[in-house]
């Protein structure tokens, strides 16, 4: 329904997607401005950072397209309209994900793919069959990891009911963090992003392996292929949190 509504005004849709692409592109413009003054950032060259940025932005863009509407959940619970989703013959999570579905978010994915393509074309990497296969697996795993964060954040809104910004701190804030090399951050932050909220497996760990760089925190090389496992575990935990939160829901009352 939301897609049909959006495509009813095709020129407006095209302009909105273009605007979304340009606005999200400001993040990479900031990185370009940094490299106008320095030759490397934390020991990483511009193509390497573009590679890092492209993986994070593309993975997050896919998750944001599918599950980015989760932040409306708190508002629905406060005004009582969430109750109408419970009586429909469809999974509640799917309904929340489809609520106000914004096809304009394709602009973010396009922007991420363009930067990723440029980075791959200019990065100095010793490509092997394993590394080539690792790239699409990393993108899919990264999208699943961000998706798990969206669902976990939505589950938290059952408790806080006004926690959209808390959720955004881990989703939008997480992808912004991952756009920069791990070497520019403190060890404690890198440790928390690796073991507490495992966002490092979106791009820091696999990209470091592809570029033959030391993995964050001295992790062994085999962990570069652990992203699918980490993503699967995160999705299971987020799913359990969602089910528990949904069962605890007691409506808004009067």
UniProtKB/TrEMBL annotation:
The chain crosses the membrane at residues 12-38, 50-68, 105-121, 133-152, 189-207, 219-242. It comes from the Bacteria. The keyword Membrane applies. Keywords: Membrane, Transmembrane, Transmembrane helix. It holds the Pfam family ABC2_membrane_6. PANTHER family: INTEGRAL MEMBRANE TRANSPORT PROTEIN, SLR0610 PROTEIN-RELATED. This is Transporter. It comes from Streptomyces lasalocidi.
């Amino acid at each position: 329904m939301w897609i049909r509504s959006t495509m009813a005004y095709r020129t407006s849709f095209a302009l909105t997607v273009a605007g979304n692409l340009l606005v999200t592109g400001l993040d990479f413009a900031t990185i370009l401005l940094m490299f106008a003054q320095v030759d490397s950032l934390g020991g990483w060259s511009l193509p390497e950072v573009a590679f890092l940025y492209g993986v994070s932005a593309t993975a997050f863009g896919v998750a944001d397209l599918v599950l980015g509407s989760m932040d409306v959940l708190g508002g629905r619970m406060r005004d009582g309209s969430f109750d109408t989703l419970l009586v429909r013959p469809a999974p509640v999570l799917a309904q929340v994900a489809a609520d106000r579905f914004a096809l304009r978010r394709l602009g973010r994915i396009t922007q991420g793919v363009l930067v990723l393509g440029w980075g791959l074309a200019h990065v100095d990497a010793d490509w092997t069959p394993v590394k080539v296969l690792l790239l699409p697996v990393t993108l899919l795993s990264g999208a699943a990891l961000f998706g798990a964060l969206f669902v976990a954040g939505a589950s938290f809104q059952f408790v806080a009911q006004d926690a959209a910004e808390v959720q955004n701190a881990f989703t939008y804030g997480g992808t912004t963090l991952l756009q920069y090399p791990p070497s520019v951050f403190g060890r404690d932050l890198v440790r928390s992003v690796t073991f507490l909220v495992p966002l490092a497996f979106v791009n820091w760990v696999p990209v470091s392996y592809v570029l033959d760089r030391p993995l964050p925190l001295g992790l062994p090389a085999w962990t570069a292929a652990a992203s699918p496992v980490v993503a699967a575990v995160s999705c299971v935990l987020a799913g359990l949190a969602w089910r528990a939160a949904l069962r605890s829901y007691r409506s808004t009352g009067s």
